[in-house]
Amino acid sequence: MNLDIHTTIRVAFILTIFGLFLSVLLGIQSFRTGLKLLYFQKRRQLILRGWKYIFSSLGFLVGAIIINSIAEPVVYQVFPPSPTVTLTPTITLTPTISTTPTITLTPTDTPTPAISYTPIVPVQIETQFTSVVQPNPDTVFSPLVFAKKIDKNLQPINPATEFDQPITSIFATFSYDKMNAGTQWTAIWYRNGKELLCYETLPWNVATGGYGYSECNLPAEMWLAGEYEVQIFLGSTWKISGRFTVVGEPPAPTATRSPTITLTPSRTPGPTSTRTATSTSTITKTPTISRTPVPSRTPRPTDTKWPTATP
Which of 57, 139, 146, 310 has its CA at 20 to 30 Å from residue 72's CA atom? Predict the structure, then answer.
């Protein structure tokens, strides 16, 4: 094993310290054993041996001080350190051909997002604000959960993120905390990110924490297939958004039938008399009540007498 001078002196210092502690322990043990003996000669021998260990520990202490302080400089005076050889690479590889692009493509059009990433309250809704209470910035909302129905505890029944037709109502449920009473609260429903469907805005008038919901109730034919988004605001500050999808075609609206009148002529029995046509009206019931004009009666023509015979 090859050790340099510094390492050798460190090892010698550690061994000296170890000998110091060992001598002290042996001396103390010899003193304790000697004091317990009744025989004078044995007791004296053990006590003298203990003092030898103590003096030996003092020698180890002096040696450790000398080794740690002056041993290394003295050794370097006798054996001067030789310079350390530094390895220098002799061959340097330099590339001879550099490929430089001759054409730099500079984009001429910078795409600008058409929709802001931070939702805002539309002006036509913001003008309806009535509350002057400042929202609590520490108010928190849970992620929105969507369902067609909720229970009496405002919990969603069969929540989902994709709904099939037919649909008449969708509920967006959430939990909240640290809400200030009287804060202007707004929920806005969009279809495909731009078409406003439903909204509600009013001062908050329930508890400061618990469960809440927003409902969008529309005719079934207005729930078109697409992606829907609900945005929650406190004042003008956006707090949270949630999305769901509607698939399938909505049911077609029910057509309304109009009343029709059909005139049916009656049979004329012979050339002697002519009878008027009678009118038969067929009326289809509709949700709204409308008056149907009654056709007027045409007076019956007088009978034409037969000519008298001529001789």
Answer: 57
